[in-house]
Design goal:
Layout: H1 2-6, H2 10-23, H3 29-40, H4 44-57, H5 62-76, H6 79-87, H7 96-108, H8 112-129, H9 134-149, H10 153-166, H11 171-184, H12 186-193, H13 199-202, H14 208-212, H15 235-245, H16 301-305, H17 328-336, H18 348-362
Helix pairs in contact: 2-3, 3-4, 4-5, 5-6, 6-7, 7-8, 8-9, 9-10, 10-11, 11-12
C-alpha cells in the first residue's frame, strides 16, 4: 500500500515491498517503492545501489530504472554522473527529448564539447536510419545554432552547408553560412554571397508615410494639418487656449522677519557649534535648587549644622576648670527640662491607636 509510504510507516512499507518482490521478482514497482522509502530516510546511496543491482539483473526494465537513478543523481547535485547514466540508455540516445536534456545539463556544467558530441551522435543515427527527415534536419539546425552561439563557427559550417543544400532558397541559412565563412575563409564567403538574391527582388512594398504615422513610430513628430472651414478657430478662442496652457509660476517662500536690506548670514547653513562666531555657553554660578542632591538632603541645612557660624550661641555644657554660677530662675528651668531619652515622639500615641483599630477590624478570621 502506498499509504504506508506517505504516513511514515517504514517497517510496514518494507514488509509489504518485500512480499511484493517475492511474488513478482521481475516487476519494477516493488524496487521503486523500496528506493522511495530509502530516499525518504535520506539514504540516497543505498537507493541507487539497489536500483543498479536490479537494472543489471533485469536489462529489459533497465531504461526506467536508469531514468530514476539519473533523477536521484540530479537531486544530489551530481549532474555529470546523471548525464553518464542517461547516455548509457542506448534506446533513448537519439530521441530529441533526451538530446535536449543532455545538451541543457552539459551546458549547465559548461561542458560544451560533450554537448556537441551529443548532437553529433544523434545526427549520425538519423543520417544512417532516417536521412533527411524533419527530425534529422531540425537536429542539424539546432546543432548549428548551438555552435554559432558558443563561437564554434568552423564546426557549424558543415551543418549549415548541409542545410543549405537541402533548401537552396533558405536565405537565412545562407546568410549564416556567409557570416561563418567570413571569419574562416573570406574567399568562400564571396562565392556564397553570389547566391544571395538581388536587392530589387528582396525589396518590399512598404508605405513609408503610413509607417511613420503608425503608433510604433512615437519619436516622429506629426505635422499639423491645415484647418479649414468650420474647424478653424477664431482669434479670441485661440487666445483663451493659450492662456489656459500657461502655468503659473509659484513664488519661493521667504522666512519670517525677512529684511531684504540686510545681507543674510553666510554661515546660516552650518550648525551653531561650527560657526566662527560661536563662543559657547556662559557657565554661571551653581545655585542651590530644591529637589536636587542626595536623598533626604535639605536646602540650607549645611549652614545650620556649621559649628563655626554658631559661635555667638552659649555652650550648653561648662568647660572643665571653669566655675559656673546658677541663678534660681535658671535652676528651676533646668529642672523642668526633659532629657532626650525620656522624650516621646509626636504622634506616637495616635499611630498606636490606628494600629489597634486595624487589628480589631481585620480579626483572626479575615472577615
Amino acid at each position: 500500500r502506498s499509504s504506508d509510504l506517505y504516513t511514515n510507516q517504514a517497517d510496514q512499507c518494507r514488509k509489504l515491498a518485500a512480499t511484493l518482490k517475492s511474488q513478482c521478482p521481475e516487476h519494477i514497482m516493488p524496487v521503486l517503492i523500496q528506493a522511495a522509502q530509502l530516499c525518504r530516510e535520506k539514504q540516497h546511496t543505498k537507493a541507487i545501489e539497489l536500483l543498479q543491482e536490479f537494472a543489471e539483473q533485469h536489462p529489459a526494465n533497465a531504461a526506467e530504472i536508469k531514468l530514476t537513478m539519473a533523477q536521484l543523481k540530479i537531486a544530489q547535485g551530481s549532474v555529470t554522473k546523471a548525464c553518464m547514466i542517461l547516455q548509457s540508455i542506448e534506446e533513448l540516445q537519439h530521441k530529441p527529448g533526451m538530446v535536449s536534456a543532455l545538451v541543457m545539463m552539459y551546458s549547465h556544467e559548461e561542458d560544451i564539447d560533450s554537448a556537441i558530441e551529443v548532437f553529433t551522435q544523434a545526427i549520425q543515427w538519423y543520417q544512417e536510419y532516417q536521412p533527411n527527415s524533419t527530425t534529422h534536419l531540425s537536429l542539424i539546425r539546432e546543432a548549428a545554432n548551438f555552435k554559432l552561439k558558443h563561437g564554434r563557427k568552423k564546426e557549424a559550417i558543415s551543418d549549415l552547408e548541409q542545410l543549405w543544400r537541402q533548401n537552396p532558397k533558405d536565405i537565412h541559412t545562407l546568410a549564416q553560412l556567409i557570416s561563418a565563412y567570413s571569419l574562416v575563409d573570406p574567399e568562400k564567403a564571396k562565392v556564397f554571397s553570389k547566391h544571395l538574391p538581388s536587392s530589387d527582388s528582396m525589396s518590399l512594398k512598404v508605405d513609408v508615410d503610413a509607417l511613420e504615422n503608425s503608433h510604433g513610430a512615437t519619436f516622429i513628430r506629426k505635422k499639423a494639418g491645415k484647418v479649414t472651414g468650420e474647424n478653424q478657430q477664431s482669434p479670441t478662442d485661440q487666445g483663451q487656449v493659450e492662456t489656459k496652457k500657461k502655468k503659473k509660476k509659484k513664488k519661493g517662500k521667504l522666512p519670517k522677519h525677512y529684511d531684504p536690506k540686510v545681507t543674510p548670514d553666510p554661515e546660516r547653513w552650518l550648525p551653531m557649534r561650527e560657526r566662527s562666531y560661536y563662543r559657547g555657553r556662559k557657565k554661571g554660578k551653581k545655585k542651590e535648587q530644591i529637589g536636587k542632591g542626595t536623598q533626604g538632603a535639605v536646602a540650607g541645612a549645611s549652614s545650620d549644622l556649621d559649628a563655626s557660624k554658631s559661635a555667638s550661641s552659649p555652650p550648653t555644657s561648662p568647660r572643665p576648670g571653669t566655675a559656673t554660677t546658677t541663678t534660681p530662675a535658671t535652676s528651676s528651668s533646668a529642672s523642668n527640662v526633659i532629657p532626650p531619652r525620656h522624650q516621646k515622639p509626636v504622634g506616637a500615641a495616635g499611630t498606636k491607636k490606628k494600629q489597634q483599630q486595624k487589628k480589631k477590624k481585620g480579626g483572626k478570621g479575615g472577615w
